[in-house]
Every structure is written in structure tokens, then in C-alpha cells.
Amino acid sequence: MAKKEDFISLFESIEDMACLLDEHWAIYSLDKDFAYFILLPNPVSSYNIINHQFLWQTYYEDALKIAKMPYKRFLTWSKLFEKNKNPPPTVMIQTSARSGSTLFGAMLHHEGYSVVYGEPPIFSVLVVGYVTKYWDEKVRTKGL
Hints:
By secondary structure, this protein is α+β, with helices and mostly antiparallel strands. It is 31% helix and 12% strand. The protein has helices spanning 55-62, 71-84, 101-108, 121-131, 137-140; strands spanning 25-30, 34-39, 65-70.
């Protein structure tokens, strides 16, 4: 499961949260205190299931920088992000690992029509956290 200990990080600078809107930044993980983002060498949209079957592995290997944002600020920021974007109709299908999901995802991925991402690490964090009761009511409403 993705976590902050995956990387050795050194403080470089403080940046405006708007930099995370760049298409090279992806959310990597969450914990009770912070949201973690990684800077990738290519736009996030290029990390589809055809090019990268398992995002958790690719994200870890390709990360150039890591940024963290306090959890409370992340909740506020994500609501603003949602209001400022007009995403296309979206369907999310989450399958368990080793279930044929890569083959299924590759069949659903059609350039220009649909994009499929294979095993994004943030989904594993959310699911495992939910099952283990890590994301209890106190954490889910923190900052609301």
C-alpha cells in the first residue's frame, strides 16, 4: 500500500497549491494528516493501462518529486478543484488485483473515447483504509 515512507524527501520549497493542477502531478497517497502528490515526467493521462498496467509500480519508479498537503486543506482544495473542472461523464470500476483486470481494462481502453488506469495506488489506500476502519468518521469529517 502506498505510504509516505516510500520516498526519502528533502525540503525544497513552498509552492502554491495551484501547481498541483498541472497535468504532471498525480495524487499518490493519503493518511490522516496529509495528502501526498508526485510529479511525473509525463502527463498523467499518458499513464493509461495500455502503457502502464500497474500504476502503483510506475508511479513509484517515475516520481520526480513529492509534495504533501495537510489533509484538511486537501479536502477544501479538492472541492474547489471539483467546482472549477467540468469532467466528462465518468465510470469507475475497481477490481481486485490478479483478477484479469488488466485484460478487461485493456479491452475498455479506446484512445480518444475512454481512458483506463490500472491499479492506481490511491484506490488501494482508500479501500484498505475503509476495510480496516482507518478512515473512521472522525477522519472523514476532519476539517469539514
